[in-house]
Write the structure tokens for this entry.
Amino acid sequence: MRALIARVDLRGAVTADIRAAIGEALAGGPVVYPTTNPSPPPSPFRKRRSHVAAFVEVLARHGIRSA
């Protein structure tokens, strides 16, 4: 799947927002999509762990040089 997506210009392949049509086909009636993403707040456990700098720092502590 990744290879296929990498070869296709998705903006040219899908020229219209078809979410409503897909939702209607799957749900059997009109669907409504939220205007905002009600995601949860950032996890305090993952603070500073999801950035490249933190990963490079761990590599350096173990003697692995980054390019």
In short: DSSP finds four helices and no strands in the chain. Helices lie at 2-7, 10-13, 19-27, 52-61.
